[in-house]
Amino acid sequence: MKLAWLAAGCAALFSCAAHAQSSVTLYGIVDAGLYYTSNAGGHSAWQAGSGDVTGSHWGVSGREDLGGGTQAIFQLENGFSVMNGSLRQGGRLFGFQAYAGLANARYGALTLGRQYDSVVDYLAPLSFTGHHPGGNNLSAHPFDNDNLNNSFRVNNAVKYASAPIAGLRFGALYGFSNEAGGFDDNRVYSAGAAYDMGPLSLAAAYLQANNGGSANTGGALTLTERTFVAARQRVLGAGAAYRVGAAKFGVVWTRTQLDGLATINGANSLGIAMNGAGMNFSNVEVNASYLVTPTLDLSAEYTYTSASMSNADGAHRPKWHEVSVQADYLLSKRTDAYVQASYQHLNADNSGFTADISGQTAASANQQTVVAVGMRHRF
């Protein structure tokens, strides 16, 4: 009898110890609001929306201590609409992220699954559109051409992220095509680095996607998630931010090169005929934020985007000017209310484009304004 009680006590002790070395966390953001669009396909629009500014999502993350400073980790993130309860990211259960791997406090983390690329991980946090979890959907650069707003995630991805070394972090990702006899048919690879030391932050990243218009639906990118259907997309960017007291100032530069461009998803209704020759975008963004009080934050950004392209009508050089301002007020540690206004003006150069703020129906002219009022709750 004594041995039985002793065995039961030991089992309970080890069970508690194992439980103490493991953790699972449920978290998320719910963003709901109202927004006005000055020109959506030729008409003004008043609408209720989910994720007007920050994509609504929930997730589960966990880790288990394996000893020697190494942990098994996983993360599952679901994107959804508050207004109708539907799934986002093409109806995926875990469309934001889904991965598992190993992490070590000294050597970094190695993970496998559907994940963010290096542009999103390292450079996006210095931009206005990427400084919120889930992105700032109204402030993406035209067509989110550099993916700073995380329009697409990478499937079949193997990713390494270093541990911080004197303020320096770096990493790389490779998304497999998963196609026999077509190793580079719908694959993605990226690399990036960030440096944070005191008030200064620096970052740089590179991304390349091959054969995005491939019929290989099991590859790194899903065709319906991509803005561009092109033989190759390359993104290169760098940014810096500096904090002075309650203020923060930043600048981000990116260049996107598209080779063999077939079409731009969402822009076909504009009658834009691409001939597969190519197109490139150069984006320069300046942003600033100021913490007026511990509960009130004001922020703004301006982005100038120039592009060059060739289509059936010849060569064109459209240019975009975008401005966004936001006031964000903390109602509590978990809940805030925001007002944001975004304006876009396009010098179209007869290219067939019209103004098109991210997430909205394209305008029928060269100007578009969106004003959003909403609240976010974090849990």
Folded structure, characterized:
With 379 residues, the protein is mainly beta. The chain has one domain: Porin, CATH 2.40.160. 7% of the residues lie in helices and 56% in strands. It is built from two helices and 18 strands. It has helices at residues 2-20, 118-123, and strands at residues 22-40, 43-50, 57-67, 70-79, 97-104, 108-115, 154-161, 168-175, 187-197, 200-210, 228-244, 247-264, 274-293, 296-311, 314-316, 319-330, 335-347, 367-378. It has a 16-stranded antiparallel β-barrel with strand order 1-3-4-5-6-7-8-9-10-11-12-13-14-16-17-18. β9 and β10 (200-210) form a beta hairpin. It is globular.
SSE order: HEEEEEEHEEEEEEEEEEEE
Second rung of CATH, namely the architecture: Beta Barrel
* CATH fold group: Porin
Low-confidence stretches: 1-20, 267-271
Query: For this structure, what is the CATH homologous superfamily?
Result: Porin
Q: Helical segment tally?
A: 2
Main β sheet profile: 16 strands, antiparallel, barrel
Give the class-level CATH name. Answer: Mainly Beta
Structural class: mainly beta
Work out the radius of gyration: 22 Å
Strand portion, in percent?
over 45%
Mean of residue pLDDT values: 88
Approximate helicity band: under 10%
- Tertiary shape: globular
Number of domains: 1
- Counting DSSP E segments of at least 2 residues, the number of strands comes to 18
The end-to-end distance, rounded to whole angstroms, is 47 Å
Which sequence of strands runs across the widest sheet?
A: 1-3-4-5-6-7-8-9-10-11-12-13-14-16-17-18
InterPro entries: Gram-neg_bact_OMP, Gram_neg_porin_domain, Porin_dom_sf, Porin_Neis
GO cellular component, one term: cell outer membrane
Subcellular location: Cell outer membrane
Protein name: Porin
